[in-house]
Amino acid sequence: NAGVTQTPKFQVLKTGQSMTLQCAQDMNHNSMYWYRQDPGMGLRLIYYSASEGTTDKGEVPNGYNVSRLNKREFSLRLESAAPSQTSVYFCASSALGRVGTGELFFGEGSRLTVL
Amino acid sequence: ELKVEQNPLFLSMQEGKNYTIYCNYSTTSDRLYWYRQDPGKSLESLFVLLSNGAVKQEGRLMASLDTKARLSTLHITAAVHDLSATYFCAVDTQKPGTYKYIFGTGTRLKVLA
Q1: CA pair distance B101, B33, nearest whole angstrom
Q2: Which one of A53, A72, A85, B110 has the fewest beta carbons within 10 angstroms of its own beta carbon?
Q3: Which residues of chain B lie closer than 8 angstroms to A6, CB-CB?
């Protein structure tokens, strides 16, 4: 019962470096999401993919790109990391629309520090 | 734009007391979700409320949804220390093909022994 798996769990980058956060789900969900969590800010949606082959911007997309590689995998890329991107990143997935309850299932999170 | 507000942001309460956390949202939606997060951990689903008037209960927690008032409540009965955590509500936009979930800022609950 893996659910939603994120890698890496921890990463330290220098300003200007690039990296990709990987996310995979094994629940056959159509929709996948990337959130960031900062103290006192709750969870803010970065990008989401309502179905395989589509991606859309969320509340805070600047500085990020995403790829929905297939139905299982949704990656988040930081092309040129900035200290403001220091955060905890969560990947989540859900069944699309009225299928099931629409409940979101979360990965364990990836803690990213940009120096 | 969909906005979700929770209050209070911080709540410190004695064991055995009752309290309510409120979640207001700005646009029409008939589905609302409550999550719990322990420090350093991920989010765990507590309740899924799928229609107006929905009420769900699990142990000392009870959640309800009033879609006309755009309000959900999470009621805590006879709090115990194990309930200390941050609680989030979330609403989905319910636009076919573009479902996205917007979260409130969370309520940090501390239950004092």
Answers
A1: 9
A2: A53
A3: none
Length, in residues, of chain A: 115
Both tokens of residue A83? 């200290």
- Say if CB B109 and CB B87 are below 8 A apart: yes
Closest by Cβ to A41, choosing from B31, B41, B105: B105
The label of the residue with tokens 């590689």 reads A69
Respond yes or no on whether the N-terminal peptide bond of residue B8 is cis (omega within 30° of 0): yes
Strand partners, B32: B49, B91
Nearest 10 degrees: Cα torsion A62, A70, A75, B107: 80
- Alpha carbon of B13: minimum distance to chain A alpha carbons (Å): 20
For A49-99, the pLDDT digits (tens) are: 988 889 999 999 999 999 998 999 999 999 999 999 999 999 999 986 555
Full DSSP string of B58-82: ETTEEEEEETTTTEEEEEE-S--GG
Q: Which residue in chain B has the smallest CA separation from A31?
A: B99
